[in-house]
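Hi support team,

I'm opening this ticket because the web form for multi-chain structure prediction keeps timing out on my end. I have pasted the exact lines I submitted so you can reproduce it. The total is 806 residues across two entries, so I didn't expect it to be a heavy job. Is there a limit I'm missing, or should I split the entries? Thanks in advance, R.K.
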Amino acid sequence: MSRFLTVIPVKEAVAIAEKLAVRPQKIERVPAEQSAGRVLAQDVTADRDIPGFNRSVVDGYAVRAGDTAGAGESIPALLRSAGRIAMGNDKKDLHVGTGECVYIPTGGVLPDGADAVVMLEYSEEAGDTVLVKRPVSHGENVLQRNEDFTSGEVVFRRGRRLSPQDAGVLAACGCAAVAVAGKPIVGIISTGNELVPANVVPEPGQVRDANGPMLAAWLGGYGCVPRLYGIVKDERSAFEAVIERAVLECDVVILSGGSSKDDRDMTAAVIASKGEVLVHGIAIAPGKPTIIGRIDNKPVFGLPGHPASAYVVLIAIVRPLLDALLGQEVPLLRTVNATLSENVPSQRGREEYVRVMVKDGIATPLFGKSGLLNTLVKSDGLIRIPAGYEGLEKGCGVEVILW
Amino acid sequence: MSRFLTVIPVKEAVAIAEKLAVRPQKIERVPAEQSAGRVLAQDVTADRDIPGFNRSVVDGYAVRAGDTAGAGESIPALLRSAGRIAMGNDKKDLHVGTGECVYIPTGGVLPDGADAVVMLEYSEEAGDTVLVKRPVSHGENVLQRNEDFTSGEVVFRRGRRLSPQDAGVLAACGCAAVAVAGKPIVGIISTGNELVPANVVPEPGQVRDANGPMLAAWLGGYGCVPRLYGIVKDERSAFEAVIERAVLECDVVILSGGSSKDDRDMTAAVIASKGEVLVHGIAIAPGKPTIIGRIDNKPVFGLPGHPASAYVVLIAIVRPLLDALLGQEVPLLRTVNATLSENVPSQRGREEYVRVMVKDGIATPLFGKSGLLNTLVKSDGLIRIPAGYEGLEKGCGVEVILW
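Hello R.K., no limit was hit. The queue was backed up. Here is the completed structure from your submission:
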């Protein structure tokens, strides 16, 4: 092991990580109502026009728009009531002729002859006659056949991360269930001689493992199945046994915690002995001592131990690999534009990620050591300063990657 | 039933809905790593200082800062190596005296006598001597004891919606498991004679139920357990049987789908016969014909049938009740500030919610009938036009409630 790291640019590291998504994609079928947050593994096509017929969007009277021209409160149009539309039936027998109208409920099928609907509020029944007190124009209050989607139209492409609204569209298109990417199983091994689990009272010199639960919580929310393998101390044989099991059981393995040079070196040595170390050191701050490797054709990451560093690397480097495994076309990064509240210095030659709070369009940097949890908790997201910059100036527009 | 609705302001409707959260809060314990997205049902206190000792944040040499004053590449400070700190141990026996240094790994306990750490990169070992080539100031590269959290400090208050980062803090504070609000069970009954489920090919005049799956998907993502009761047609006895069962099995019941006056009237009549209708009509657009009721002391909502209307009412009226049930102090609304791309007219006297796309800080309204799904899917969120406004002008700043 060399004494210092040979760093590579973030872009290169991301490309190397993405290329590790080599296994055939796992696919499963889920009901539409459970599809939100999942990534489509198929194109979705409308199997018919939606809606399949001209529909009223109000309760009222189906009319010929021309018959209502000039109608008003004082001189209403008088139309002959020619029947009632019932919900869920295609009343083919009803026809609206000149001077006629038909009662129609919201969602009802517009009868032949009619081309608009007068709202109930602007009408009055008087026996067989309906008084219309406001004119309607052609198509008014009508949802046209296929106005939403057209039969055969590709509604969603494979690779889309589905929203709750999308679940409604799936149902409308006849997809009661849909093929989505299976959830990648991500093993998390915490390393570091100083670590104890949350339920243990730390002895002097010890700290509780915060990264394991934090990474697991993020991964769960991102559509993965996190699997915690607990804490491994610096006994090499125990470490090797756990990493072997994790590689066997998971799609991706994340080693987290060891931030000292000795820990990193052991992590790299173990990965090298079982597989291959592809990257050891990235020009990113925080997060420089990141390791990317491969064992049995599965990606293995060594994340830095500082919580903020681990979190930044998770989002900047690991996430693109997860997207690739999921077949997700567009990253699920939520971003907002904001104005920077003060100067943020950076070091040329490395990509810098700075935690920020965002309020009322102002991004306020939270400077703080990457070993702290509290700035991570207070922040809303990150701004990225590209490697070629010496910093960003107060007042400039920034894109905030929301957590 | 009156022919037209008596509408009340949104604020009043929200207050009435919130007051329906009368049952004692359900509480469960979840592991820290599964707590993200859940609402805390307890305050969380740091059980000790975090970190519990002065920690190095780099690999290097623990020194007295004063000993490095004036050190440089050409004239390094020469310090006597007095030992090595091992990870996870509180090396009480090591002491850094004047002119001395001790090797310390990242995360190691700063030994007595030392007040700063020189990074490995700026040092060189020569036998028992270490050459320091850059001065450090007091406290440099050290995380002070309790710099993150102080023993006894309330770290999170009850009612907080937890983030993945928070899961890390919970672990650090010794909360391997934490008390959170139980997930409200929300029953969804789709009503409407025209509705068929997603797996059925609609006959002429029929449409597939999109709202049921859409509402379920949103509720699942919001931390509820949605339970779909299928589609009820206009047979009153069947409707009554389903609503009775749903009220028995759920914490909240949502009736969705019937948007015609007849459907609404039946929904209101059934709620009234089993309990009480509290609201029938809200000054909101879209979503005016909303019903809020109570059966057996449980909230029952009648949402309008148009998908966009149902979704707006879900977020504007139902969500605050869910927050109250969850004990959530701050709404989980993600909002961004944007500039409106064009004039948006509105009608005085009702609160209007307009779907918008947001890109590069510009909010573009998506005008479209509330019966359409596609504008709902294309939109990123909603802007709210208060009841007293006749619209918003192009170029004005708006707050977008992201879906």
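A quick check on our side: Chain A has four domains: 10-25+183-326, 28-49+159-181, 55-143, 334-402. Let us know if the file doesn't open in your viewer.
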